[in-house]
Amino acid sequence: MSSSQESPLASKGCLVHLSLPIDRVKSTVDSFLETLFMATADSGSSYVQILLSAASMLLVFVSAILLAHRNDLGWWTLILSVFVGPMISALQYDLLGLIYAIPLLLLPIFGLWRFSQFMLNGKFTREVTKTPVTLWSAVGMVVGLILLVALRFGPFLFNSGFLTATPEVWVMYFADAAIFASFVMIARGVREGWLLLAVAAIADLVVYFLISPMLGMLGLYVFIALAAAYGYFLWRGLPAQAAEPVQVELDEEGLALQKAKQATLDKLNAKTEK
């Protein structure tokens, strides 16, 4: 009898002992997240958005390291970073965010295609050739950044809501767009794309430090800037793009004329020798 009466108490005691470690783990995770991202698991949607943004920037860092070594896998990592960050946030909280997320997703897809134009050396490494910056490419980059920022504002662009945005918001929007747009330059073999990535990461770092100094996000942007500097250093020895030889293609009429001229010259030479 006594043993049968003690078993329920023993089971309850086990539940109590099990719940204590779970509470401690939750408390530790909340403290960790609050330290790094100034958010806890009880803070709702903002907590999820912050973690999605952090995961996206972490993947950007990994992508930069891979592309510094001219590895194709960097583009797949960058595609995943857009999907994890802007795409999931738009699908979960505001479908209008797809106006910005979908064009942003096209950038690494273009990079994957453009990088495939370089010769493959091994399984995933490309023999990238250096492409210089031209005036038109610089103008195109500026126009592209403006378009991305306009798409980021979305419907607020048409009701003058963007006019109330603070300077910090403008800098953040342009820096976020530049982080992904810089990979378009990298895909073309433009070494200065790494400088644009570093400047954009530092700009985001400054904005987060002034507005909301989350150690986690600050650290991620520091790592991205360092990865950009690393990529710029590794790409210093890229060979210049070789000029393609001009091939003159002669049609049938041109070949006939050339043969007639050669035959005439041969006859003149023969008469001269006689």
Please describe what this structure looks like.
The protein has 274 residues and is mostly helical. Helices cover 73% and strands 1% of the residues. The chain is built from 9 helices and 2 strands, in the order ααααββααααα. Strands 1-2 form a two-stranded antiparallel sheet. A hairpin with a 5-residue loop joins strand 1 and strand 2. The longest helix is centred in the N-terminal third of the chain and has 36 residues, at 2-37. The radius of gyration is 30 Å and the shape is elongated. It starts with a helix and ends with a helix.
What is the topological layout?
Layout: H1 2-37, H2 45-68, H3 73-93, H4 98-115, E1 119-120, E2 126-127, H5 135-153, H6 167-187, H7 192-211, H8 215-234, H9 252-273
Antiparallel strand pairs: 1-2
Helix pairs in contact: 2-3, 2-8, 3-4, 4-5, 4-6, 5-6, 6-7, 7-8
